Amino acid sequence: QSVLTQPPSASGTPGQRVSISCSGSGSNIGSNPVNWYQQLPGTAPKLLIYSDNQRPSGVPDRFSGSRAGTSASLAINGLQSEDEGDYYCAAWDASLSGVVFGGGTKLTVL
Amino acid sequence: EVQLLESGGGLVQPGGSLRLSCAASGFTFSSYAMSWVRQAPGKGLEWVSGISSNGGSTYYADSVKGRFTISRDSSKNTLHLQMNSLRAEDTAVYYCAKTNKYTSGPLDYWGQGTLVTVSS
């Protein structure tokens, strides 16, 4: 059971907007920034969003993030077939003194 | 270009030991905290351990505390993970990851991973 809670799956058609939620507690999301990782099939994870809403160089602006209270959200606008994969939220947990991940959300592009 | 290359994975019996290494290049290794993250077959990501830029602070997931030891050799730009008393549930792909500065920061570069299989 993961410390951060994500829906196990999400889906959408090309061009649609999809949102993935991530729920935590005061010791992690409630007090530390959230990062999001994308893992495409057969590849290593890649940093997608950091510090709640910042995109690393090279990440399309179709991807955006937000945080409010003890929850965070990843939004993907203009869904594309190449976005299909697994998405993980993560944050530092002050009580555990470590990084905690969500269980991951498998995104399917219909 | 940042590169992280893990090595040392393999098949080990329950109760055995293994030492993973991660050779880093393309950045000033001694300036950044590093972490190990693992992924069991068909499962999600699990953070295992982190170490500060100067090696003075180390952090572990409860699942490996007391069994795994993280260390770094800045003279060789290499990160290590010594794994002892291995269990079947430690079977996973182990990724080495660089943080953007501190151990609590985002993991901005990842290696391709090395597979550890614990089985008799």
Short characterization:
With 110 residues, chain A is mostly beta strands.
Rg result of chain B: 13 Å
Label the structural class of chain B: mainly beta
> How large, in whole angstroms, is the Cα Rg of chain A?
13 Å
Mean pLDDT of chain A: 97
Strand share of the residues of chain B?
Answer: over 45%
Helix content of chain B: under 10%
Q: Spell the H/E element sequence of chain B.
A: EEEEEEEEEEE
Number of beta strands of chain A: 9
Chain pair sharing the greatest interface: A-B, 25 and 24 residues
Unreliable stretches of chain A: none
Task: Round the mean pLDDT of chain B to the nearest integer and report it.
Answer: 97
Category by helix and strand content of chain A: mainly beta
Shape summary of chain B: globular
- The helix/strand order of chain A is EEEEEEEEE
- The end-to-end span of chain B amounts to 40 Å
**Uncertain stretches of chain B:** none
Helical run tally of chain A: 0
Explain this structure to me?
The complex is a heterodimer of chains A (110) and B (120). Chain A has 110 residues and is an all-beta fold. Chain A is 0% helix and 45% strand. In chain A, the strands form 2 sheets. In chain A, strands 1, 3, 4, 7, 8 and 9 form a 6-stranded mixed beta sheet that branches. Chain A has a 3-stranded antiparallel beta sheet with strand order 2-6-5, with no helix packed on it. The model of chain A has no long low-confidence stretch (mean pLDDT 97). By secondary structure, chain B is mostly beta strands. Chain B contains no helices and 11 strands. In chain B, the strands form 2 sheets. In chain B, strands 2, 4, 5, 6, 9, 10 and 11 form a 7-stranded mixed beta sheet that branches. In chain B, strands 1-3-8-7 form a 4-stranded antiparallel beta sheet, with no helix packed on it. In chain B, a hairpin with a 7-residue loop joins strand 9 and strand 10. In chain B, 42% of the residues are buried. The mean pLDDT of chain B is 97. Classes of the chains: A mainly beta (110), B mainly beta (120). At the A-B interface, strand 3, strand 7 and strand 8 of A face strand 5 and strand 10 of B.
